[in-house]
Amino acid sequence: MNFKKWLVTSLLISGLWLTTTQNTNAEAEASIHNESIYDLYVDRYFNKVIANDYDVNAKDPSAFAGGDFLGIIEKMDHIKEMGFTIISIGPVFATETYDGKRILDFNELEKRFGTPEEFQELIKVVHKNGMKIMVEFPMNNFSENHVWNSDHTKKNWIVQNENGVIQVDLENAEVQKALKETIIDFAKKYDIDGVKFSELDGAPTTFVNDIINGLKEIRDPMYAIALEESEANFDTNYSDSLLVNFRDAFKNTDLPTEGIAQTNENDLLMIDHLLTERFTYYSALENMFPPTRIKTALGAILTMPGVPYMSYGTEIAMNGQSALESHQVMNFRVDEDIMEYLKDINSIRNKSETLRTGKTELLKNENGYLVFKRYSDEETFIVVINNTSATQRIDLSSEIVGENVELRGLFEQDLVRPTDDGNYRLVLDRELVELYQVTELKGLNKSYIAAMAIAYLLFIVFLVIVWKKGKQRRLKEN
User: Fold this and answer.
1) pLDDT confidence of 460, banded at 50, 70, 90?
2) In angstroms, rounded to a whole number, what is the distance separating the alpha carbons of residues 213 and 233?
3) Euclidean distance between CA atoms 433 and 472, whole angstroms
4) Contact 128/87 with Cβ under 8 angstroms?
5) Helices (H), 158-238
6) Rounded Cα distance, 214 and 183, in Å
7) Cβ-contact 331, 316 below 8 angstroms
8) E-assigned strands of 96-173?
9) Rounded to an integer, what distance in angstroms lies between the CA atom of residue 179 and that of residue 182?
10) What does the longest C-alpha to C-alpha distance in the chain come to?
11) Count of alpha carbons within 13 Å of 402, Cβ hemisphere only?
12) 164: left (phi over 0), alpha (psi -120 to 50) or beta
């Protein structure tokens, strides 16, 4: 990015907020609708401590790789700078597998991940950085070596299904009591902010709701979500079809977007998760450039109604079809293009309650070209998603945009004023997302011009100083 573009972008993204009265995300009332979620597996993130690397083999994709609680702390700034507000981590209990889901004992933390003190430190640092932490709890499919299976008083808890898979009988009242106590006690002991439920198959809805109600009584906020379709009272709605619709809409250009146009603020919005193929896999099959595809998709997810949810590694276009391929160890030495994009767009979303929970009016939706208005009593945005193979134009009337206003593009630096007929003409290049903030028509923006003038003046002064020092050095040498 050249100097002029950097300057303009910085002024638009940061300076425009001086005229608004919006609360930041951290100041807003605690609600899942104000959050954005970054999901990771502890073992696959960052290995900070060598002392806990028991039977670690980074070359074997099915083995433990060494990631730990202190590793997440080490890379906390990476997550914070991208603007996510919740860090969701996989199960942390003693386990046979790197993803934490073949649980051996709920009463012990996985020693390869770290100690209870280190886990407490992780939670403390997350909160110190103004974020929240969510922990995954599998409700079934534990290891056949789970301590319950070695306790003769709990033998009737374990069942074998028709495929020979060892499972826990989730309709058993004793099992339900034990699981509820485990989850509630864990949430009381550790100051977590939410639970992501998994392996819900066979769990009665009333039982899951009983746990959710118990969690809600511990502290506020205490979020409860699941990446499975369920009738339980989760804070968000997950839909397999919505995920597929987002993936299929953005894996290439000019694809139908009808399936994503009517999201609501309770929907979990994502292009993949850690139990699916990576979005990069599908865009690569289309012979498309994954980073561009990812940025366009995330631009939509972060401006539409709903709760954004992103898997670790998406910011580096991590690829993979099977779990062993897609659960790679995070590589922090990669191009930062997607990360910078997330930083910019999340900074706007986190400052704007309108973008998080405001009303929505769909203005255009045709094969990858999606235009909608996000508005509230305080502010209005026009969002243009051009996921097509050509430059697109739309003319919006003053009835839609407003009278005596102008539109400021926060990314492409466009300033749109009404034409002679009172319409607002928005033109956007292919494969871009633009966010236009509607502001009062002020004619020349004196503060903006002054800021530009000062910046250029300082730059000229810098060049003069460098030139004079160079001249003095040459005189001394002669």
Assistant:
1) confident
2) 9
3) 49
4) no
5) 173-189, 205-216
6) 9
7) yes
8) 103-109, 132-138, 158-160, 166-168
9) 5
10) 95
11) 19
12) left
- pLDDT score of 167 more than 90: no
Alpha carbon distance 144, 166 (integer Å): 6
Half-sphere exposure of 104 (CA within 13 A, CB side): 11
Mean pLDDT over residues 112-124, rounded? 98
The answer to whether 340 and 334 are in contact (CB under 8 A) is no
Look up residue 426 and give its two tokens: 């928005």
Whole-angstrom distance, CA of residue 276 vs CA of residue 266: 21
Q: Are 312 and 330 in contact (CB under 8 A)?
A: yes
Pair of tokens at residue 416:
């749109």
Residue with tokens 């940025």: 295
- By mean pLDDT, which of 38-52, 76-90, 148-162 is the weakest? 148-162
pLDDT of residue 443: 56
The predicted model scores a pTM of 0.88
Terminal-to-terminal C-alpha distance of the chain: 39
Structure token digits, residue 32:
């899942």
Tokens of 79: 């997550």
Of 82, 4, 90, the residue nearest 43 (C-alpha): 90
Give CA angle at 354 (15, 194), nearest 5°: 110
What pLDDT score does 227 carry?
Answer: 96
Q: Which residues on adjacent β-strands are paired with residue 370?
A: 365, 385
Q: Return the number of other C-beta atoms located less than 10 Å from residue 79's C-beta.
A: 21
Closest CA to 298 of 126, 194, 431: 431
Is 272 within 8 Å of 297 (Cβ atoms)? no
For the chain, the C-alpha Rg in angstroms (whole number) is 25
User: Which pair of structure tokens corresponds to residue 422?
Assistant: 């009172």
Q: How far apart are CA 384 and CA 110, in angstroms?
A: 46
Q: Name the pairing type of β-strands 194-198 and 392-396.
A: unpaired
| Residue among 190, 194, 181, 191 at smallest CA distance from 222 | 194
Give CA torsion, residues 233, 307, 40, 209, to 10 deg. 0
Instruction: Evaluate whether 442 touches 406 at the Cβ level (below 8 Å).
Output: yes
Look at the chain and count its residues.
478
Distance CA 80, CA 472 (A): 45
